[in-house]
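Notebook entry, structure prediction.
Reason for the run: the old model in the group folder had no record of what sequence produced it. Starting over properly, with the input documented here first.
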Amino acid sequence: MFNCGFIFVTEGCNPAVDHTFIPGDSINMQVVGVSSYSEGVEAAKTLAAAGANAIELCPGFGVEGVAKIKAAVPGVPVGVIRFDYHVCMDNQSPDDLF
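New structure, fully documented this time:
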């Protein structure tokens, strides 16, 4: 079984409330919403400790945010969907917002 995590970042999310588990036949996915890079780091650590084989990040994590997540979970592959300027953030770079 492949266990993966997906973390999205947006204002007002609370990882204690904004999360879900999606079971599958060959892949299980844990989805977590956070409101900052620091919460994303903690969510990634939690996912890794729970056995995540990989973590994917939403485009709300800029280059700096991705680097922080990768540093927090050595040995766990981290991927990211990329918008350099996020369409849901008034076309600003997430690195400037978080």
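Summary: The helical segments are 37-49, 63-72, 94-97.
The old model has been moved to the deprecated folder.
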